Structures are given as structure tokens and as C-alpha cells.
Amino acid sequence: MNYDTILEELGEFGAWQRRIAMLLWLPGVIDGIQILMFSVTGISPPSYRCQFNECNNDIGTILGEDVNIHPEISSGRLDYCKYYTPIPENGQCTFTKEWFDLSTSRNEIQECARNATFYYPNFEMENTVITEFDLFCKRNYLVPLVNSFFMLGILLGSVIFGVLSDLYGRKNILLAAIVCTSIGSLLGGIMPEYWSYVLCRILVGAGAEGCFLIAFNLSMEMVGVKERVPFLPWVRYRTLVANTYSIPLAAGECIVSATGYIIKKWRILQIVMSVISLSFGFIWCFIPESPRWLICEQRYSETEELIKSAADTNGVNISPTLLRQPRKTEPEEDCEVRLINNTKYTIRDLFHPSVRVISLVLFICWPIVTMVYYGISYSSEKIHLTEDVFLSYILVSLIEMPSYIFLVLVLDIWGRKPLLVSFLIIPGISCLAAAFLKKGPVFTCLVLLGKFCISAAFNATYVYTAELYPTSIRNTATGVCSMIARFGGIAAPWITTFLPDQGSIPDWVPYTILGLLCVLGGGLALLLPDTVGFPFPETFADLEVIKANSKPIWKLATSHDIKLKEPSEEEIQLEDIVDTQL
Description:
By secondary structure, this protein is mainly alpha-helical. It has 3 domains: 183 residues, Growth Hormone, Chain: A; 74 residues, no CATH class; 247 residues, MFS general substrate transporter like domains (Growth Hormone, Chain: A), CATH 1.20.1250. It has 22 helices and 8 strands. It has a two-stranded antiparallel ribbon. A two-stranded antiparallel ribbon has the order 2-3.
């Protein structure tokens, strides 16, 4: 029983597959909501001050912007964690500009205590995680730590949910991932203090990554690799499904940003988003188990029932011979179980001479792409694309959608290598230029161009990586690259928001770092072979054929008639599912 053979009669993207693909967009929306959740619930007030201990009557009077009470850090930026010492009369202060001009000691500066009470003017939210947990001054290092814990959760989720979905099926573990991220987010919305809240972010990150990866893989496992889109004859359905799946992720980011216009209290906003995410679990009732996984598990009766139902939906008939259960002595073609002289491949084979350079390049490019992607996303509040912080987040999210559509249109024409190189070099130049510009229309366009390209690069790296490794270590390679990439995500909020806010680095440094890293990644990507037009390599010998015959970067892609080298008896392999998960 072979699913790809069944698809020749069932159809690769009929009504059955289309319905499932649309339902599986909802877990992608959940992932997008959780990625940008803290960017909205963690908005910081533009200015603040701590309680003046010298003034017995300080009950939180908001001082005007013209009151010169804070010393400067650099470039005109004020240090809100310090203030010139007021000189009260009988412990009483008058909170006016004239009084502070006359009654403060400019030679003596006080620093806000760790347990100080903070006051701030009205801003976009009534309250946020930052204002409720007083994450100011000596506690402000805890702000980027929230997203770092979220990234840690993503790292864990990519491993845990990947293994569980192979052991217990895609459908049930997808529901578990939806519950994990939704309940984690719901609990975070009611936690009374910072550390319990941030630990919930690990659960949220793990579940969100599970939602994305499992739904993405399940979508891919429903379609085949042969049929092409009728109105885009150069695009295969699998390419279409793979490169448009990130659209709902961007939609989720827009949804949580737009909700900030309506709900101004962070706990209510997070609880509402959590309930909506949890409600998406209804798709469990309407999506099937992966037929490929069922065949691998030798659950043939369930597979037969599933295929017959799919055939009814697609309006086709399936030949009974295609649903014949194999004899026990027949190898199961859909099961990726391979052995090499009874020896399993291990992670060390990522440094096989045939892929050593490829692995080293990807181990650098993946974290760069991730750092720049999340760096631009997280810093939208700080870089002020517009004066409206929610609109800034929406714009940065919306720009991703056309990038994924563009990728569908050109990936099979231009090739993987020139796209990855271009989509790293262009945002590199954009970030370097933006670093030395003042906020304005040109700055905004450069940042959005950078986000457009890096979003496309983010998607392209998944496709490219899968095509650069033999089947026996393909998923292991993708898993390792994804894990390493999270270190870029962990570093992103520290470089793009925390250190500039602290005054530890000038404002131009974050985008300069992102720009230089992108240029570095684009240069290293030139060392990769282009895989467009070739089938997936099955062995290292196949990969050598691809490396020897891949097209030059300046040429458009064509289908290759080159037949990949047949493996020798020593190379005959059956993939091991355990090795495909880290």
C-alpha cells in the first residue's frame, strides 16, 4: 500500500485535501498569536518615574514633558531610572515645572530603588505585564527574558512534539499541542507574579511550535509531488502548500495586534486570545490522521476506510488493488525506515565529507535568519514605523504575506540558492541603511523591505535544507538546524530592544549588527549547491551528483534529466524514523 500511488487516482489536491489544508491553517494562526502576544501585552510606557522618597506627598502626580527632572543618557534620551534630588519644604513638594526648576539639586542624582513604586502617563494600554510587575530600571532585564523563555519553549517543542507525533500520530498530538499552548497562555494570564508567568511562556512556546510543525507536516503529507497548479504550471501543489502555510501565522500576528485596539488590559487580552486558540481544537473532529503515518504503523484497515472517504469527497473511485494490504515480507514503501549494514545514521553524519560545508553554512544561516526575523518583529514598538504601535505591528506582520506568495511564484524558476542569497543580502543592505537614518518614510520602507525578504528567507530555508540532505538524515538535519536557529531568536530581543533601551549601545548598533549578519549569511550561502530541478537525494552519492550538476546562480531553473546515481549494495538504506527526530 503506497500513498503516492493512491494519489494518482485520488488526486493530489482535490476537495478533500483542500478542506484539510484550510482547517490546518488554524493552528498556524495560533502560532502567530503566541509569537506576538508579549509584544502587545508587554508594551512599555514611553516614559515613567519612580516615587520620590524625599517628598512625603508624592502620590503619583504625572509630570509634564517639560519638567526637567531626569538626567540624559545619550543622544537626548532621558534616564528615567534616575532623577535630580528634589529639595522639599517640610517634606512637601510642589509638582510643577517652576518648583522643580528652583527646588532640585542638579549636582546630586538619586537612583530608583529595586522595590520602588513607579508612575507613568497614559499610553496605548491601561496596564501591561511590564507595568503590573514593575519591570523597570533594575528589573528591566526581565523584559527580554520573557521572549527568551518563549524561544526556549519553541526549542523544546520542536523536539518533544516531533517525537510524539511520530509515536502517537499527527492528529492526537496536534490537539495536545493546541491544548498545551492555549492552557499555558491562559495560566499565564492569571499568574500573580513574574516568574510563574514567564514559566508559562515555556509551555506556550512549546505548544505553539508543535501547532506549527505538526500542522505543516500533516498538510504536506496529504499532497503529492507530481501534480502542478493549473494556473501556475511551473508550481507543484506541494510547493504551494509549503510556502503558503506561513500566511496564517502572519494573520495570527495581525489578529493579536488588532485586538490591542479593543482590549486595553493585558490579562483580559491574553485570556481572550487563549480561549480563541483553545476553541480551534474543534478541528480535531474534522481532520483525519495522516495516511502516510497510518501505513507506516501498518494500520491498513483505518487507511482503507480513510482513503475511501477521501475518494467519495473527491468524487473518484480507487482501484481495490491499490488498497491491498501488503504481505508481511513486503517492505512498506511509505515508511521511512532505512538501515545501512544494520547500522543507524547518527547526528555525526551531518559532518560527512559530502555535507560538511553545507552543514556549517546552514548552522550559521539559520540563526541569522531567525535573529533578523524576530528582531524586526519584536522591535516594531521601538522603531516606530508609525506613531500607532498596533498599526506598526500589523504592518510588519502583513508584509510577510506577499513574501510567501512571491516565494511560491519564483522558487521553482529562479532556484533556491539565488533566492536565499538575495533574501539575505537585500535585508542586510536595508538594515545597514536604516541604522543611520532618522525615523521617517524612507526608514519605514527599508525596514518593511527587510522584513519582506527575511520572511521569504525564513520559509526558503526549510525547503532548501530538506533538499540538501540525503533521505536518511534529512529530518535530523532540519531538526538540528531548527534547534540552533532558536539561539538567534533568544538573542534577538536583547540586541534589538533591551540594550538600546538601557543606553548600553547606540540606536544605530542593533540594525548594523542585523545588517552585517545578513550580508555574512548571504555570502556563505554562495557555498551551497542549488537543488532546484533535482529529486530529493537518497544517498550521499546522489548529493554529489547534485553538487556537480547544479545550475549557476545567474541561470534560471530547468528540470534535470540527470538520473541520480544508484546506490551500491553497501549504500542500500532504509530510513529510521527514530533518526529523523533529534
